């Protein structure tokens, strides 16, 4: 080989060493031992209480019967799918490696007082507790530490977000829920304009006009689980002007448009709770007659 070839090989070797040292993140990693198994093991059906405490908030979720409810920082029905996701993801936290066992390094991985402490109870008794720290370098991994242990584990999954959801995402944002098959008629009222979408003789009609199947199917899907974007927990005075109302399955949903923010205040007759709904979402259900009927009818 020529002298230049040896020089290039030497440069390449130096670059490899530098890249390795950079990937090791000196100052963070103090242990490289590998381990197998899960961070925690749960009986998903027996879990009946979850406490999540971060430096900024505390959330307590409790199971009553078969449903989950928020107990702190307020009392409200919980988003069942988000709670189920938390339990499922927790039960699947696979430990990839132990990166440190030195207490003084816990702050580097944010598994000290800066982390999120999770306590999970089964049948009323505490089953496990652990601390969720910062995301790993790949952002598909997270640092975590079991309570009463100095071992900092690198676990699979972007867990920080799952445990640190805003409070509103732990609340059930359903305004009105009804099985699609029960919806046989929808009454639309826009101030002095009223019309009815009804299922007659195996087809959906507006008066004597035929409708567009895809538009009606999309509407029914949205109405079956009408979702809000946020909650209004303060008293609204004076009462908002109602711009539109939808009536179906024995309930009435009122919409009040807010020009500021281009959104609606929404409330169902089945609950005193007011919600916020962005216009794009409200427009999925606030259909006009011309949106529903087939052209030319």
The low-pLDDT segments are: 14-35
Q: What is the count of structural domains?
A: 2
Q: Structural class per helix/strand content?
A: alpha+beta
**Strand ordering within the main sheet:** 4-3-2-1-6-7-8-9-5
Average residue pLDDT: 89
Helix content: 10-25%
Instruction: State the CATH topology of the largest domain.
Output: Immunoglobulin-like
Structure at a glance:
By secondary structure, the protein is α+β, with helices and mostly antiparallel strands. The chain contains six helices and 20 strands.
Structure description:
The protein has helices at residues 3-24, 80-91, 159-163, 213-224, 279-282, 289-292, and strands at residues 47-53, 58-64, 67-72, 76-77, 95-100, 116-122, 125-135, 141-146, 152-156, 174-177, 185-190, 193-200, 203-206, 209-210, 225-227, 230-232, 244-248, 251-258, 263-268, 274-278. By secondary structure, the protein is an alpha+beta fold. The protein folds into two domains: 30-169, Immunoglobulin-like (Sandwich), CATH 2.60.40; 174-292. A nine-stranded antiparallel β-sheet has the order 4-3-2-1-6-7-8-9-5. The chain has a nine-stranded antiparallel β-sheet with strand order 14-13-12-11-17-18-19-20-16. A two-stranded antiparallel ribbon has the order 10-15. A hairpin with a 2-residue loop joins strand 17 and strand 18 (251-258). The chain is elongated. The termini are far apart. The model is unreliable at 14-35 (pLDDT under 50).
Question: Can you give keywords for this protein?
Answer:
297 residues, Immunoglobulin-like, 2 domains, nine-stranded antiparallel sheet, 37% strand
